[in-house]
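Weekend entry, working from home. Most of the wet-lab plans are on hold until the incubator is repaired, so I used the time to fold the two sequences that have been sitting in the queue since the last round of cloning. Logging both here for the record. First:
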Amino acid sequence: MLHNLSNKYGRVMLGPLKYCHIESLRNLRNRERKWFIYSDEIDCKTQRLWFEKYLKTENDYFFSVSEIKRPDFFIGAVALYNFINDGKACEFGRIVIDRDATTEKGLGFDTTVCACRIGFEQLGVQKIMLEVFSDNISAMKTYLRAGFIVNEKEYGNKLLKMELLKDNSLLYTTGKNI
């Protein structure tokens, strides 16, 4: 959906996903597709059609990720979507960071915290949920460090559901920037 939300945290900044980003996103997503539930390869035409549909979809906030030191250089994407309970809860996902485009480590964590802060502070959600494959150890470490807790296991323990509550979030309970 068209939006103008943005935020900075740590070394990253998030802004609205734009048409100029979608080919880089497609290539990156295809390269990392084993970590996505829908893991088919995506061609250029399908990506353009998806983006046109995305722009018309309510309550689907897709963000481009860039480093603060290189604000015009796309290094990844993340989204907040599937809002429920009158907008008090949403899903976090579609996160992908191009490790080949940066020498920095830990940008997935900065991106996760930044997106969650947008959800809590700008969109007013109280709970953010996600699904992650249990063998995606790097993502699991990132989400646990950001304060997510495992809520339930599905599909023979292969897919984990996690959640982060604003009231219990380390983002707010410690009084520190994590």
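Second, folded right after the first finished:
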Amino acid sequence: MPEYSADERKFLLQLAHESITASLQRREPVCLTPPSHLCEPRGVFTTLYLDSRLRGCVGYPSATHPLYRATIETARAAAFEDPRFAPVTVAEAGEIEISLSVLSPLAPITPEEIQIGVHGLVISDAGRRGLLLPQVPVEHGWDRTIFLEQTCLKAGLPRDAWRRGARIEGFTAEVFSDLE
């Protein structure tokens, strides 16, 4: 059962689009009073797609901001600060599709407990940290071992760091997008 109602999901997606538009227009986003449920601190990732291809993804893995504020900030950052992509242009902004992944709190998890398509991972060691969302291994057809290895590589760690004492944390995510 989803934690967020259809209206709450729509509110957050509209807020993400407004954040990008406002940044392009060099103004503050217009934010109507959010429902109280969206004022609770939550981790969130905003993923942007253009023509069904990744166009940016930035997020907060931890619950450091109210969800509505974290959505504003991660949408703007995904559009303009993801170092893998040039900033979103005015022409692209109207075509961007947004997906939001609202994260549960992080918790220690053993490799055997990881369920592909259910859990996202954070692996950290020696001051490095990598995170992959639950949908990533599904999109790439990875099994549990490859998922662990790829999360290590994302952290800049050796692919087998998860076997050698790196901290493994899991989370779930409620994922929704413009396409729903």
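Plan for Monday: verify the second prediction. The two ends are 16 Å apart (CA to CA).
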